[in-house]
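Researcher: Let's do a round of design. I'm pasting the structure tokens now; please hold your answer until I've finished.
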């Protein structure tokens, strides 16, 4: 069982557990698991993480639910994380699992090129 599957199956108590997007969006600290549907998009889009200091101690999963080879999904910070480099999801079932320490986003697990 993959780490992503275990996290999705765990009983996590959250205000707003998950959501689905097919266009550019800015996450809030309540958006913990985001499924991205690149096939429904007319072009690639960006998912912007919440403010790194507000997300301190939180984990976020951004998951490419469908093939994104023609419409890449870019995961970006709010220009507030030390040493950040955008992450690109460009195939079905790619994901990134990110955690904030209040100053920096850390990619703690992933399945992307």
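Researcher: That's everything. Go ahead.
Model: Designed sequence:
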């Amino acid at each position: 069982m993959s780490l992503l599957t275990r996290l999705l199956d765990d009983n996590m108590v959250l205000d707003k557990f998950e959501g689905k997007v097919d266009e550019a969006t800015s996450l809030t600290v309540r958006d913990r698991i985001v499924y991205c549907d690149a096939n429904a998009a007319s072009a690639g889009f960006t998912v912007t993480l919440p403010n790194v200091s507000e997300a301190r101690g939180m984990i976020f999963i951004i998951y490419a639910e469908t093939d994104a080879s023609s419409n890449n999904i870019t995961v970006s910070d709010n220009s507030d994380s030390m040493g950040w480099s955008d992450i690109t999801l460009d195939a079905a079932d790619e994901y990134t699992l990110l955690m904030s320490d209040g100053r920096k986003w850390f990619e703690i697990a992933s399945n992307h090129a």
